[in-house]
Amino acid sequence: MHSANSVRRHAMKDLVLSRRQLLKGAGAVGVLGAVGIPATAFAEDGGVDLLRWDLVQFLQGTALAGGTNQATDEATGDVVTLSGSGHAEPKKKRATGGGTFVHRHADGTEVAHGIYRVTSFQSWTPAGGNLAPAGAKDGIGTLEQTTGGLLVLHIAVLPAAGGMVEAVLGVDCALPGVRFPIEEGAHLDVLNFHFKQSGGFTLFHVLRGGHGE
Hints:
By secondary structure, the protein is mainly beta. The protein is built from 2 helices and 13 strands.
């Protein structure tokens, strides 16, 4: 376990450093104007026809599907753990996919668990960048297909105990070379909770179309 975590940390060292250096230079997280970039410059789909999204894990220096991300609600300290994968077609405003969730209180007691499925596409903001400089290998697609960006999806959350709740899932990927500050990870707005990124990695692959660079 320790050796696997060590490999993962080394494989992602450049990625994390790149993100932190960019954020430090910008002086603010998520404010495009801080780096002199008009927000409208990245509002389009970047020429992407088909995009794959994953919440990934890094094992033996290789990016693989099936990872988990954590997100924390600042007001309550509650944590949600998410897995997930899917596809998006930005030009056609379509998206598919889904995954699992576990919601826990700050003390670790479980609130709910179950699955979620994507119901619709909201937005895709391309950011460029590439996984290759991080020194990791790609077990999902090719390194040339990887890109950073921001994907926002509408989802249906389906607790195992029953019922359904609508929510908004954000998948944010910061790779070396991204053109504006990105906080790596997944975030979720559901009911009165605003779960923000607190652990894990994401990855996008452009399967058809351009990278918008």
